[in-house]
Amino acid sequence: MLSRGVEDRFPDFAKFAAAHPEYGLGRTPEQVRAKYFDLAARLDAKPRPEGFNGVLFREITFAELYYDKRMPWLAEFWRALDTGGPLPESPPGPPNVENMLASQLHVICNDSDWPESVRTYQRNVAIDRVRFPMFGAAGANITPCAFWPSEPSEPPVRITDRGPSNVLILQNLRDPATPPAGARQLRKAFGDRARMVTADQGGHLAYLFMKNRCVNDIATEFLVTGERPRLDVACPA
Fold first, then answer.
1. Residue-wise pLDDT tens digits, 175-224
2. Fewest C-beta atoms under 10 Å: which of 35, 41, 133, 155?
3. Is the distance from CB of 6 to CB of 174 less than 8 angstroms?
4. Which residues pair with 50 in a beta bridge?
5. How many CB atoms lie within 10 A of CB 228?
6. Are the C-beta atoms of 176 and 204 separated by less than 8 Å?
7. Three-state SS at 173
8. Structural contact between residues 66 and 176, judged by C-beta atoms closer than 8 angstroms
9. How much is the pLDDT for 71?
10. Which helix (H) or strand (E) holds 138?
11. In this structure, are strands 167-174 and 233-235 parallel, antiparallel, or unpaired?
């Protein structure tokens, strides 16, 4: 999913960078995309003295695609890597990040029965490296879940169209972390129990984060009154 999400979301950043030639990353979105592969290859071959290599470059680019407001910093970061200049100062990360990541892994790894064969991940990396060249190898790679010391305590919840009709799904069309393919599968599984609101925008999180009045009004109405749209809604940017 992450690999698909980066491919969906990256054009937003490419358009931003191309519209600001002062960054020197390309005058067209296609040139900016080519710069991504150029920088990744150069850093794979020769990391910067601070330790920034191709792996870290790809990971940071993915993380900074979460929010539009981070695009100027990401462009500055790319320019520094491209020219060898000083890296831009980044705002401090969340406190106790180790606890945050540990709790995230605890949930994700216990939620599903992850493959334990290294060969499974090797095969997935090879496939997604071709299908999603920007982030496929990283998104499909092995994680601590493969070696988790315990098995899930219960089977996954089976989502069906039987039950209360009180589900509202919000989805950005270009979400780098949770792309719309997963939301559409969930919507189909819920059947008439759910309504889905899609937003023609990029980034992770929708409600109150992207200032999309259409999304915010529908979600607020649902939270306050329990009322949902009669049909699925496609909100413009």
1. 999 999 999 999 999 999 999 999 999 999 999 988 899 999 999 999 99
2. 155
3. no
4. none
5. 19
6. yes
7. strand
8. yes
9. 97
10. helix 136-139
11. unpaired
To the nearest 10°, the Cα dihedral for 180, 177, 236, 217? Answer: 100
What residue has token string 């393919």?
Answer: 181
Query: Helices 29-45 and 71-83: crossing angle, nearest 10°?
Result: 50
Question: Radius of gyration (Cα) for the chain, nearest Å?
Answer: 20
Handedness of CA 184, 6, 61, 145 (dihedral sign): positive
Interval 153-172 mean pLDDT: 93
Residue 211, both tokens: 């200032």
Find the range with the poorest average confidence among 100-114, 116-130, 188-202.
Answer: 100-114
User: What is the Cα–Cα distance from 67 to 172, expressed in whole angstroms?
Assistant: 12
> What pTM does this model have?
0.91
Structure tokens at 136: 């496929």
The two three-digit tokens of residue 6, written as one number: 């980066």
Q: At what angle do helices 2-18 and 29-45 cross, to 10 degrees?
A: 120
Question: What is the per-residue burial (b if ≥16 Cβ within 10 Å, else e) of 133-161?
Answer: bbbbbbbbebeebeebeeeeeeeeeebee
The percentage of residues in the chain with a pLDDT greater than 90, rounded to a whole number, is 86
Neighbours of 46 (CB within 10 A): 9
Nearest CA among 67, 60, 71, 107 for reference residue 204: 67
Residue 199 host element (H or E)? strand 194-202
At residue 29, the 3 state secondary structure works out as: helix
Amino acid identity, position 139: G
| CB-based burial label for 61 (10 Å; 0-12, 13-18, 19+) | buried
